[in-house]
Write a structure and sequence with these properties.
Layout (H helix, E strand, L loop, with lengths): L1 H4 L26 E2 L23 E8 L3 E2 L3 E4 L10 H5 L2 E3 L2 E5 L5 E4 L1 H14 L7 H14 L11 E10 L11 E11 L10 E6 L17 H4 L2 H9 L4 E6 L4 E5 L2 E8 L5 E5 L11 H13 L3 E4 L4 H9 L3 E8 L3 E10 L2 E4 L11 H14 L8 E3 L2
Parallel strand pairs: 1-4, 10-11, 10-17, 14-15
Antiparallel strand pairs: 2-3, 2-4, 2-9, 5-8, 6-7, 6-8, 7-19, 8-9, 11-12, 12-13, 13-14, 13-16, 16-17, 17-18
Helix pairs in contact: 3-4
Length: 390
């Protein structure tokens, strides 16, 4: 295998990441903890801005091709020490996850489906030919970090602690090849409600000039390279007055994702059935979102309407809107959970999406899904997806 031959000859790689399985794995029982002697001052929770405040500590685990994973280290939050030649800085060999910890009124701290986040991170690591890890052991390491910094979890509906697990290559040589060194680290950020004033519907700009992902690419993994190329198009869309880009693909204008979220369309299909539909995963250009999967499972469990995963095109959305069959559209992701859509600009025309007449901010199905999801996340409804860690 070509990529294996590019690695130093002293390292014996077999096909794929299975070559790493004989090396030392992540062992949460060996975690070393260095507590800070200078705790940070905490902001009032009402002043929190997403991704700008970080807790006292971070988790760091190094890997090398000779020994495998080293001992997990929880240390005071601070800069990473990596070589300037590290291939993560030159060739985008980096990936990440987004997940949250919640605390409810009785003081229980919960993670929402952390097994899915770790499974997806392993998929991303494998796609970059970085070492994978035991998901359960990594979750145990993350639990230790969260419990150490539990006082950073803001209380109240809509508040949470955002967790950012990240994997990077620290291979200290320039050259496009498999990595001999890697690092996983986790940082924590207290965050407030995505919509402080309640649901705020977004305006989308359907873009066929730029392409976010394509079949056979990396759109089905959460690697850094998927996002860097979206910043300029997003800036252009915002200058035109639109909140996010709806990424299209191909001459048929397949609907893929919106900003950093999966997209759902609720409509009456051409067979006269009420249907909730989202783009399929089989093409490889759609991220398998944790919230996406949760919505599909919840709504299928209701058994009230058809719930499917199939190709959607912008022309089909325009046709449904003109014929009065378009009911609701919303995005889903870890940060916002649910993001209602009020219009999509397509070919220079704003396509209006129906909103609930009562408040004009979202549809009834969108609100219902958001409530059921948040009830699970905050433990108001007991569910196996909500994992208590204390």
């Amino acid at each position: 295998m070509f990529v294996a031959r590019r690695v130093r000859s002293s390292v014996n790689f077999a096909k794929g990441t299975k070559a790493f399985s004989a090396l030392a794995g992540v062992d949460s029982t060996k975690t070393i903890i260095h507590q800070t002697t200078h705790p940070k001052a905490k902001l009032e929770k009402e002043k929190l801005k997403f991704g700008t405040t970080f807790s006292d500590h971070m988790l760091e685990i190094d890997w090398d091709a000779e020994k495998g994973w080293g001992k997990p280290l929880i240390r005071p939050y601070g800069p990473l020490n990596i070589d300037p030649a590290s291939s993560s800085l030159h060739y985008a060999l980096q990936c990440f996850e987004g997940m949250k910890a919640y605390i409810n009124d009785d003081g229980k701290i919960r993670l929402f489906r952390p097994d899915m986040n770790m499974a997806r991170m392993n998929s991303s690591m494998e796609r970059l030919f970085l070492p994978t890890f035991d998901s359960k052991e990594m979750i145990e390491c993350i639990k230790q970090l969260v419990l150490l910094d539990k006082d950073w979890i803001p209380k109240g509906d809509g508040y949470s602690l955002y967790l950012r697990p990240t994997g990077i290559s620290t291979h200290p040589h320039i050259g496009v090849s498999a990595s001999s060194k890697a690092k996983v680290f986790v940082i924590l950020s207290p965050v407030g409600p995505y919509y402080p004033e309640g649901f705020a519907p977004v305006k989308l700009y359907a873009d066929d000039k730029y392409v976010r992902a394509w079949p056979g690419g990396t759109g089905n993994t959460k690697i850094g390279g998927n996002y860097g190329s979206t910043i300029m198009p997003q800036y252009e869309a915002s200058k035109k007055g639109y909140s996010q880009i709806l990424w299209l693909f191909g001459e048929e204008h397949f609907v893929t994702e919106v900003g950093t979220m999966n997209l759902f369309v609720y409509w009456i299909n051409e067979n006269g059935e009420k249907e909730l539909v989202t783009a399929p995963l089989h093409r490889g250009d759609i991220l398998p979102g944790v919230t996406r999967d949760s919505i599909l499972q919840l709504t299928r469990g209701w058994g009230e309407f058809k719930v499917t995963e199939h190709t959607i095109t912008m022309p089909s959305i325009v046709k449904a809107q003109k014929e009065g069959r378009l009911l609701e559209i919303f995005g889903s992701g870890t940060a916002a959970i649910i993001s209602p859509v009020e219009l999509i600009n397509y070919n220079g025309v704003d396509i209006n999406v129906p909103l609930d007449a009562e408040d004009g901010k979202s549809g009834k199905l969108t609100k219902r899904i958001w409530k059921e999801m948040t009830d699970i996340q905050y433990g108001r409804v007991e569910h196996p997806w909500s994992v208590v860690i204390n």
